């Protein structure tokens, strides 16, 4: 999925779907798509939490993995905005169930842990977006460094999983990496031609950064509350 994401980002530099938007419409489309994804996730947490917790975990994981892979492939190989939107939904909707399970694990939408994670995530998103606007050249150079950090994080998680170990440091590292990924993907989105398909694809990248940041913060505050 990481290689597909890199391929998709590079392909967007030469991607034109026939209509160039103004900067305002382009960024409004990105914001609207991200907001759509997050609202959809909230509604899933609100109305489908019981369904998410009763599904067989192995079947759920396999279905989630298939949906995400198909969604990333659709986004990687197509410049059609409709196909991009379908691919986006193949990521957003199953991610909503993943978030729902995590939220239920930490006490539900009204719990102190979830509220703290949401507020801190909102503050980080605003800060890193503002940082990207002020320092676009610096943020654009973060790609290789963040990619290596993410690969190291995944390797560390796999090793600790097989060793039966768990560390709060993994959650902190994940939160830091995806915080900077928000700045990187926000600044990167402004380098692509201002088309609808590129707006949808950029929104997908930023949405995934936000989801991973929120889940990392849930683990951080959840472990803190258990102490």
Account of the 3D structure:
The chain contains ten helices and no strands. The protein has helices at residues 2-12, 23-47, 49-54, 57-77, 81-105, 112-134, 136-140, 143-162, 168-189, 196-226. The longest helix has 31 residues, at 196-226. The model has no long low-confidence stretch (mean pLDDT 86).
Compose a concise summary of this entry.
This protein has 227 residues and is mostly helical.
Question: Which key terms come to mind for this protein?
Answer:
227 residues; 0% strand; mainly alpha; single chain; 83% helix; globular
Name the helix and strand elements from N-terminus to C-terminus, one letter apiece.
Answer: HHHHHHHHHH
Give helix % range: over 70%
Helix count equals: 10
Beta content comes to: under 5%
Question: Could you state the oligomeric state of the chains shown?
Answer: single chain
The shape is globular
E-strand count = 0
Main sheet characteristics = none
User: How would you state the average pLDDT, rounded?
Assistant: 86
Query: What gyration radius follows from the Cα positions, in whole Å?
Result: 17 Å
Low-pLDDT residue spans: none
Report how far apart the termini are.
35 Å
Question: What class do helices, strands and sheet pairing give?
Answer: mainly alpha
